[in-house]
Amino acid sequence: MLECMIIGDSIAVGTANVRKECVSYSIGGYNTWQWNRDYLKNDLTANTVIISLGSNDHAGVKTEAELIRIRRASFADRVFWIVPAIKPHIQVIVKRVAESYGDTVIPIKSLEKDQVHPSWNGYKDIAERSK
User: Fold this and answer.
1) What is the pLDDT of residues 68-83, one digit of tens each?
2) What's the chain look like in SS3?
3) Is residue 14 pLDDT above 90, yes or no?
């Protein structure tokens, strides 16, 4: 079994740059539906799974249903959800899905100027909190 897996969008890509020991199934710009279309077929079993999705979701994406599909396919001792820094309605959904499974949420504490992506210190914080 894998020790650590990171799945998701550009924030997941950045997190994988800090947590180099983790396998990463992530691509910048992807929304939750796109991620499921291209990656849900993979084995999502690991001791630790870190999920970052929702920042790129739009009205046409059924975010909650798509996140639940991912969580049902993720088999892990510990699951961490990185809460998007934008889109308060998506933040609520991510927290609700995480809570329903007893998972841990990680808010982004330090942002780049775009107010979306974590700064280097933000990524280091996510890495430390997801160990």
Assistant:
1) 999 999 999 999 999 9
2) CEEEEEEECHHHHHHHHHCCCCEEEECCCCCHHHHHHHHCCCCEEEEEEEEECCCCCCCCCCHHHHHHHHHHHEEEEEEEEEECCCCHHHHHHHHHHHHHHCCEEEECCCECCCCCCECHHHHHHHHHHCC
3) yes
